[in-house]
UniProtKB/TrEMBL annotation, chain A:
The chain crosses the membrane at residues 21-45. It comes from candidate division WWE3 bacterium. Keywords: Membrane, Transmembrane, Transmembrane helix. The keyword Transmembrane helix applies. This is PilN domain-containing protein.
Automatic annotation (TrEMBL), chain B:
This is Type 4a pilus biogenesis protein PilO. Gene3D superfamilies: 3.30.70.60. The chain crosses the membrane at residues 21-40. Residues 247-256 have a biased composition (Acidic residues). Coiled coil: none annotated. The gene is pilO. InterPro entries: PilO, Transl_elong_EF1B/ribsomal_bS6.
Amino acid sequence: MSQSVNLIPDQEVQEQTQKKVVKLSSLFSILVLVVTSGVSAYFIYQTTDISKQIKSEDDKITSLRSQIQSMSSMEITARNLGKKYNSIKQLIQNRPYYSLLMEEFRTRKPTEIYIRNFTVLKENKIAITGQAQTYITITTFGNNLLAKEISNGNPKLAGLFKSIILNQVDLSQAGTVDFSMTIEYDPTKLTYAE
Amino acid sequence: MPNKLDIKIDTSALKDTVMNFIVPLVCFGVSAGLVLFIIYPSIQKMPQLKSDLQSKTSLRMQLDTKVAKLNKLTDYKSVLEEDLVLLDRVLVSEDNVPYLLNQVDNITRGAGFTLSKLNYGLGGAADTESGDTGAEFVAVNLGVTGTYEQLIHFLQNMEKAARLVNVSNYRYAIAGSDIADSTLALSFLIYSPYLQVNSTATTDDPIQLDITDPSFVSMLNYLKGFTFYENMAPSETVKAEERPIEEIENTEEPENTETTPTPTL
């Protein structure tokens, strides 16, 4: 039988192995160097580019501020106008137009009802005392106030009066009926509309 | 006999190894340097740079918009100044109590009322009136006699008056003993705001005002329809005193306050 005989000395084998290791490690290290160089170049480019853009924006901002500074008097006028306008708008939009309330109240009040006292209270309420000929008249008055719409009434004020609390009803010696009531109204119906 | 140990280090093998691996050593060394001095610092710095760029870009765009707006407003400079004068007449800068009392007097007489009481008070903003406008207020207590029709005219005139006057509360009662009497005794609590504006120019804050906005135009046209009382003379010297302001309260308290069902037919 034939057998292969390794005639290469051990030392030679060792040297060949060493050469292979050197070659592979060199190739690998060069590859790593190329990759890190590429990544470094990418980052250098990115940071340089962003820094350039920042510098460009800084220059533009400086120029714009200079232009704004030259128009400072116009800016002051515009700001003062804006502040006054916003305040007036808020004051007007929040205030109730009581003239509308009084007109609608007069429209809905039967002629047989006489108002002795009328007070506009806080929290969107009205306190009234008055006199009527009969209990039915007071009922009619209450129904008129709470009716959504009424003839000769302002259609924009439909639903103005939200609720009524009849505090007191007294039959006087003269046969008339004295009453007091608290009426709640919807303030949003009485505000400014564009 | 030897007196010391002889240590022999074979440096030639070490030297040979280093020389054999010189390329990998240099390459790895340079790579480590690149990572340590370029890549890692760049990764650290990049988010901050991007954030800086973003904030500067948005500031630049904001200033661009502001410059465009100011250029547009410059074209309307005379209109702006007229509008400011108008708004200053509607919402005055100082309390100007004599002019206010003169105005209230004119509106009162214009409605046909007979003046019976006129007091005023200064200081602070009425909580329910000012909101966040920053305005101060002059409060006026007004007492008059008149009719229901005159009351409506008075309220309408107050609602269209400049400077601004707001009727906060009011009350009326039959003046005489006959409930059918049409003469009423009326009391009003009136607030008139005033606001001093002293803006300063800043370079970065945006300008919110848009004079072409339909609601702005609509409000200005509405205000131009007001009646301006600043130059109207009183019929006589208006007599008023500064006193603590009286709230309008319900003087006729019901004896039994019960919540009853809403009356129906």
